[in-house]
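Hey, can you fold this?
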Amino acid sequence: MNNPVTYPWQAAYVSAFMELNPSKASEKLDVALRAIKDRMREPVERNSDEFQAIQDATAGIGVLRAGIGGKPV
């Protein structure tokens, strides 16, 4: 399997995505979202691959939270 982590914040996202326990997943999703928000405090070019990855991850967090009955993003 290829390493799915290209950007530092993605490690938290992948960890949350792979978690099967809903209560642990919710906590890990919080950590992932916080890592993304921290990254967004620095400039990210809107047409960059990282910006698209951030958009995709944020949407994925919303879907995962909806699936486990968690709070919205």
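Oh, and this one too while you're at it.
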Amino acid sequence: MSRTIEARILPTVRELGIGVTAYGVLSRGLLSSTGLQPLGTRDGRTRFPRFQEENLRRNWGLVRALEVIAKEKGATTAQLATAWVLYRGDDIIPLIGARNRQRLEESLSALDLTLTQEELAAIERAVPAEQVAGTRYAEAQMSALDSERSSGR
């Protein structure tokens, strides 16, 4: 759900012939099969702005829209999100974590998904980058990330 590298970083690394390892493509599980479940009080994700109250409610709306497209494809939201990243270019490799064998099999199945241009456009409409509510990290941490800085450095 974080796509800030698309504006400056991705064009630069492509110009230089450098590949990208995209980590966190499931947005800390928000785009997984458990993404729409309420967070427990001990869930560590609650410290991230994207998972706090109103932001989380707004993001759940985006996930639900993505879920509709995934169901039409016979896939999970995690598979669809991973396939979308794979379709962004051969120079982008999604880094997927799997806590158990079932999640690993689910993730690997994303390799078998074929997405049409219409489906890619539908995904873009379902989860527009500017509609994602909340940042990945707290403000102090965000300022330390090169991908999040507005000044060219």
